[in-house]
Amino acid sequence: MALSAEDDGRVRGAPLQKVAIVGCGLIGQAWAVVFLRSGFRVALFDADHAAALRACSGVVDRLKELAAHGLLNRSRIAEFAANLEVEDGLEAALEDAAYVQENGPEDLGTKSALTAELDRHASPDVPIGSSTSGIPASQYSVDVPGRHRCLVVHPINPPHLVPAVEIVPSPWTRPDVTARVSDLMEATQQTPILLDKEIDGFVVNRLQGALLSEAFRLLGQGVASAEDIDKAVSDGLGLRWSIIGPFETMHLNAPGGVAQYVQRYGPMYREMFRHDMPPEDWSAALKDGLERGLCARHPVSNLAQSQADRDSALMALLAHRLAPRNT
Amino acid sequence: MALSAEDDGRVRGAPLQKVAIVGCGLIGQAWAVVFLRSGFRVALFDADHAAALRACSGVVDRLKELAAHGLLNRSRIAEFAANLEVEDGLEAALEDAAYVQENGPEDLGTKSALTAELDRHASPDVPIGSSTSGIPASQYSVDVPGRHRCLVVHPINPPHLVPAVEIVPSPWTRPDVTARVSDLMEATQQTPILLDKEIDGFVVNRLQGALLSEAFRLLGQGVASAEDIDKAVSDGLGLRWSIIGPFETMHLNAPGGVAQYVQRYGPMYREMFRHDMPPEDWSAALKDGLERGLCARHPVSNLAQSQADRDSALMALLAHRLAPRNT
Predict the structure, then answer these.
(1) Do B247 and A229 touch (CB under 8 A)?
(2) Based on the domain organization, do A117 and A212 belong to the same domain?
(3) Is B273 a domain residue?
């Protein structure tokens, strides 16, 4: 079945396209929301069938939250829910699916075996994307006969609220497969970030890891508190970065653009990192008060509420960002 | 004169407090907006008097933009503008000022001489903050008699739209001076980020520099395009970081909080940076297409418009972030 999503997941006149979600934890549920709200049919499968059944109500809850924040029309929730099915067999879930999103455990052996099984049952040439944040497709798909259709499709948490999705083909992923998955992400209002080659951590976690390493270093050297470092981002860098990326930020911060910025500030950044220390021991920082401070702000016993608050704020922000398009 | 700002810049029953802005480029103008909208009187001084006169209309333009985005009441613009004065002498600008914000050139000799002059004319114990992004107070104030009242007060561009402000005392800055400046920033709705010691680049630019270095490395290795790296931040990390900081992000991304996050993902980040390359040559990346790509999106000839668009988006975002407080 060709993958050519239009506005509402159907080729004009054709039946709704179906997506199979394999692995129904929070990431799988969020993916289901992403596809349902764009008009796709979604089949859920989990090796633990009870988990798949529970996921169903999780998905509907997420849809209701989106409606409450004005991010989808409440009158369509019943329709979207009717497009959601739970299968107790993998073959049934994959039947007629135009795309498979796998959200299995982050374990090479498990993922390799699961991918081989998906490849046996999915229709030929249907792309098989993995949500893995740490295992490149070249590792888990190397012995899979249909490895040309396997690739990483890595979302940012929570996937139904953060549009960026990393698409990471292996050296043997067929370019048309990568292109079709990129088109599919565009069709579901996600933002495809296309990697031209595999690299540990992909792009998003490498950028995050670089900033985190420096944050841990500053904390370890007693330069500022974790709370102030967090505020430097949430009321500073992040506010700007939610509108323009890091390169664009440079470009807009010098009258002559990026070349002038690099000329003016490049030496300052080089000098700043001249001692370029090895990565901090994160565990030491934990014991040095990081965990205590964070738990004071967000107790672990109340973390679900903190996560819900974060998601509410993200949804309000998204509604705000989308508002101009509706006017 | 004691510095004890209340809601509208006046101690109950007392006259409005005055702030002196020395150096009237874009940063100085934005600082004027910050103080005016919180009800302070603002005196502008620039060694180039014509620049100070031009700054006056720049400040009023910024106030009008804020009103257009619902971030201040249009009916108060005339009142704020009436609290703005341009002085052609430094002494007049500093007379009765309760705080001095210096925005001079980023040159050690110039800044040292200017600071000494400010110290000669400002009332005793009035804090003298510098907007410098690169020169610690211990360098430019070392020979200033009143060095105990000198410190860095470094804003993020554009300062009237991004609340975070780094407060960086030198080893000899008196703690009560630092505390008063921190209170003043709170009183003007800025977010003080307090550094416990001086470090090259302070916190914000070190965090930004760490992320930028990795962005340049990914670009240099051909992993992804500059545009996709930008989108990975603006539609991914930055969206989240505009709501919660990097440490909070970790803490909320594992059911057991930050300790579990470090246990689960610490090894992945360590492995990711195991080859920890030296900083990229940024100039090489420029020639390799970075500048061309950025200029295609934001031509240098049109950069003022791109900056205005960025500011409009930032203001709309701020209006959105502030909305819940008004309900």
Answers:
(1) yes
(2) no
(3) no
